C-alpha cells in the first residue's frame, strides 16, 4: 500500500486551514467527514495535527472549499494578507526547507516501509520521488532498530568519493525537514536535479549564502556548493548495509603482532622462574 505524507510545516498549515475553513462554512466535524467520505475521528485528528491527510484527501478538501491545493498547504487562509510560511514563491521556506508532499509506502500493519532506491533507479527517482506509483515499484524493507520516529529511505551509492564506504553500499537515511538545522559534517544523501543522488558530508551555509557545501571523505575529490533551490530532498545517513568489509589498517595489524610477541615473552619468563 502507498500513501502520501505531508512534511513538517505543511502539516501545521493544513491543520490551521482545515479548522478555519470548516468553521467558516458552518460545518460540524461530522458533516465535513460525510462530505469528504472519511471518518469523523479523522477530521478531528487532522485538525489537531495527530494525523496526516492523504494527497487525495487534500485534493478533496481544496475542491470542497474552492481553494487551490497550493494555498491549502502553504498559506494561512485565516489571514489572507499574510503568508505564514514566509515563502519566496518557489516552494522554499525561509528556513531552507522544501514545502512538498512525500510519497511513502506502508506494510500490512500500517507502518512505514524503507524504500530502496537502487543505483540504476536513481535517475528515475528524480522524476518519481513524489509519484506513489513509482514508489510502489521500489523494493522495500524494515529495520526495527531505527525506531518509529521519522521517515526513512535507502539509497545505493556508486563511486569512491566516500571511502572507506565502498561503491554499492546501501545508505539508510532519515528525511530532514528543516535543512537549516543540519550540523556541519553530517553525512547525508542529497537529491537534486543538478547532481542527482549523491552521498556527501554537508556543511551548512544556508543562513549566509543559501547554499550547502558538499565534502567527500576521499581527499581526491574537491568540495563544491549546491544552492538550496536546486535541492529536492536531504536524508541524514543513519545506517549502512554493505557486503564489502573495510580493509584492515596494516599499522594496527603490526601493533597487534608486537603485543602478541610481548605476551609470549612474558609467558616464557614466568615459566623460567
What labels describe this entry?
273 residues; alpha+beta; 434 Repressor (Amino-terminal Domain); Umud Fragment, subunit A; nine-stranded mixed β-sheet; two-stranded antiparallel ribbon; 11 strands
Please provide a written account of the structure.
The protein is α+β, with helices and mostly antiparallel strands and 273 residues long. It folds into two domains: 2-74, 434 Repressor (Amino-terminal Domain), CATH 1.10.260.40; 114-241, Umud Fragment, subunit A, CATH 2.10.109. It has nine helices and eleven strands. The protein has a nine-stranded mixed beta sheet with strand order 4-3-5-6-11-7-8-9-10. A two-stranded antiparallel ribbon has the order 1-2. β7 and β8 (196-205) form a beta hairpin. α2 (29-36) crosses α3 (40-47). The longest helix has 23 residues, at 250-272. It starts with a strand and ends with a helix.
What is the 3D shape?
Answer: elongated
Strand order of the largest sheet: 4-3-5-6-11-7-8-9-10
Question: What is the total number of structural domains?
Answer: 2
Helix content: 25-40%
Terminal residue distance: 74 Å
Q: Count of DSSP helices? A: 9
- Overall structural class, as computed from helix and strand content, comes to alpha+beta
In short:
By secondary structure, the protein is of the alpha+beta class.
SSE diagram, text form:
Layout lengths: L1 E5 L2 H17 L3 H8 L3 H8 L7 H10 L4 H6 L26 E5 L8 E4 L4 H7 L3 H6 L2 E2 L10 E5 L13 E6 L10 E7 L3 E10 H4 L1 E5 L8 E4 L3 E11 L8 H23 L1
Parallel strand pairs: 3-5
Antiparallel strand pairs: 1-2, 3-4, 5-6, 6-11, 7-8, 7-11, 8-9, 9-10
Helix pairs in contact: 2-3
Amino acid at each position: 500500500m502507498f500513501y502520501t505524507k505531508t512534511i513538517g510545516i505543511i502539516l501545521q498549515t493544513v491543520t490551521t486551514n482545515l479548522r478555519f475553513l470548516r468553521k467558516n462554512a458552518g460545518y460540524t466535524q461530522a458533516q465535513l467527514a460525510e462530505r469528504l467520505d472519511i471518518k469523523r475521528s479523522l477530521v478531528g485528528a487532522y485538525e489537531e495535527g495527530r494525523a496526516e491527510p492523504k494527497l487525495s484527501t487534500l485534493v478533496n478538501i481544496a475542491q470542497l472549499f474552492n481553494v487551490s491545493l497550493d494555498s491549502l498547504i502553504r498559506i494561512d487562509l485565516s489571514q489572507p494578507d499574510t503568508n505564514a510560511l514566509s515563502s519566496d514563491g518557489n516552494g522554499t521556506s525561509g528556513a531552507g526547507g522544501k514545502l512538498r508532499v512525500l510519497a511513502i509506502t506502508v506494510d500490512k500493519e500500517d507502518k512505514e516501509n524503507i524504500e530502496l532506491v537502487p543505483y540504476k533507479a536513481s535517475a528515475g527517482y528524480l522524476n518519481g520521488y513524489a509519484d506513489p506509483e513509482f514508489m510502489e515499484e521500489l523494493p522495500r524493507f524494515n529495520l526495527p532498530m531505527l525506531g518509529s520516529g521519522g521517515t526513512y529511505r535507502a539509497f545505493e551509492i556508486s563511486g569512491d568519493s566516500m571511502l572507506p564506504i565502498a561503491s554499492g553500499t546501501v545508505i539508510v537515511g532519515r528525511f530532514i525537514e528543516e535543512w537549516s538545522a543540519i550540523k556541519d559534517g553530517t553525512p547525508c544523501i542529497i537529491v537534486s536535479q543538478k547532481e542527482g543522488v549523491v552521498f556527501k558530508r554537508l556543511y551548512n551555509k544556508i543562513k549566509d549564502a543559501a547554499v550547502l557545501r558538499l565534502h567527500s571523505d576521499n581527499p581526491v575529490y574537491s568540495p563544491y556548493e549546491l544552492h538550496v533551490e536546486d535541492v529536492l530532498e536531504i536524508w541524514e545517513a543513519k545506517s549502512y548495509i554493505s557486503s564489502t568489509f573495510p580493509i584492515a589498517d596494516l599499522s594496527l595489524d603490526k601493533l597487534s603482532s608486537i603485543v602478541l610477541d610481548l605476551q609470549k615473552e612474558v609467558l616464557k619468563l614466568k615459566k623460567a622462574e
